[in-house]
């Protein structure tokens, strides 16, 4: 672990991540004009996940991917959230919890489905115990596929969502050069 930490602290600055312009344009058309500000709070709801997507979400907060450098952070309360991020198959038992979380969020709010299970039910597609992913419960604004999606893919998807809402994503802070 310490080797990895030292490698990232002593290496050159990473290239600033930017979202794919084609993805940004399609999201802009789908979501509409500027709705949100530059700093966004994310409320995560696990709706029947195997926790692989949660591990990748937590990796977006480590020093390699550092989601906070783009003005994105997780919040424990839906009342302070701008984005509802859903992982898991959206089991029928979690339907009400998802609806309550979305209802508690102030407008405008966006819904993001992360992982194959949240996108369409994944390997459990067609099971009578699930709603068919987050889209079976709520209208989804952005789907990030993968089983599980990499932290980089999650960060790029969220950056595309921010840029599609009119606010350019903040550039990453440059790392200091080693002495």
TrEMBL record:
Top-rank taxon: Bacteria
What does the UniProt keyword field contain? Answer: 4Fe-4S, Cell membrane, Iron, Iron-sulfur, Membrane, Metal-binding
- Specify the NADH:ubiquinone oxidoreductase-like 20kDa subunit domain's residue ranges: 50-161
Query: Looking at the keywords, is Endoplasmic reticulum present?
Result: no
Swiss-Prot/TrEMBL cofactor(s)? [4Fe-4S] cluster
Annotated GO molecular function terms are: 4 iron, 4 sulfur cluster binding; metal ion binding
InterPro entries hit by this protein: Complex_I_20kDa-like (IPR052375), NADH_UbQ_OxRdtase-like_20kDa (IPR006137)
Q: Which PANTHER family match?
A: FORMATE HYDROGENLYASE SUBUNIT 7-RELATED, HYDROGENASE-4 COMPONENT I
Family, as annotated: Belongs to the complex I 20 kDa subunit family.
This one is known as Ni,Fe-hydrogenase III small subunit
Q: Which organism is it from?
A: Acidocella aromatica
């Amino acid at each position: 672990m310490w080797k990895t930490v030292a490698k990232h602290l002593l290496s050159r600055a990473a290239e600033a991540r930017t979202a794919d312009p084609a993805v940004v344009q399609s999201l802009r058309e789908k979501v509409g004009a500027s709705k949100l500000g530059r700093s966004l709070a994310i409320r995560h709801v696990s709706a029947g996940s195997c926790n692989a997507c949660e591990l990748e979400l937590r990796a977006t907060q480590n020093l390699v991917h550092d989601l906070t450098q783009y003005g994105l952070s997780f919040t424990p309360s839906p009342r302070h959230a701008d984005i509802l991020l859903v992982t898991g198959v959206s089991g029928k038992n979690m339907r009400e919890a998802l609806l309550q979380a979305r209802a508690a969020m102030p407008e405008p709010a966006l819904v993001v489905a992360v992982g194959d299970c949240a996108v369409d039910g994944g390997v459990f597609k067609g099971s009578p115990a699930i709603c068919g992913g987050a889209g079976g419960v709520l209208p989804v604004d952005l789907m990030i596929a993968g089983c599980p999606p990499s932290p980089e893919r999650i960060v790029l998807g969220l950056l595309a969502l921010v840029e599609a809402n009119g606010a350019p994503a903040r550039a990453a802070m440059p790392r200091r050069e080693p002495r």
